[in-house]
What we know:
Number of strands: 2
Radius of gyration: 30 Å
Order of helices and strands: HHHEEHHHHH
Strand content: under 5%
Shape: elongated
Mean pLDDT: 79
Largest sheet: 2 strands, antiparallel
Structural class: mainly alpha
Helix content: 55-70%
Amino acid sequence: TQSTWQKKRHMIVESFKRRARKLKKKLAEESDLQKRWKLHAELLAVDEEKKRSIIYDLDQKEEIAVETIKQNPRYIYSYAKRLSRTKTNIAPIRRSDGSLATNSTEKAQLLQNQYVTVFSEPACVKVEECLRWTKTDSVETLEDILLSHEDFVAALKEIAPYGAAPDGDIPARILYDCRAQLAH
């Protein structure tokens, strides 16, 4: 489905095309040199008006994009992608044996495997295996760790504001924005 803006833009472009076709037809049929000159000037004016309309539309879309980027900096990537004329492909990916995978299906599978290894369900993780390096004779508890107000704020400041959070957890943006209040 087209957005309202796209429908409006299409109607305006079609209007310019119709006007230009009519003028070109009149220009082809006219034999009087003065009238041909006037029709030609009118055709150039329609073309100039069309250019101004397109530039105005692009400026409006850019202003909207700038306002959106102020709220969500990641929007710049989708905006730039829409405006780009060349499509980039995914670069070759190294297999576990060091060779390069160039086939799209194989690259997708390798990326999926990477995704699965990074984002795993906590219930499926082998906790003992993850914690084996922490087993020593003296076990420190959370009470033994001293964390200053500044250290806590600095640690929360390192959180990527738009980082993903598991379902049910506090979103990273809230932790980032409220770091000073949480430190109290």
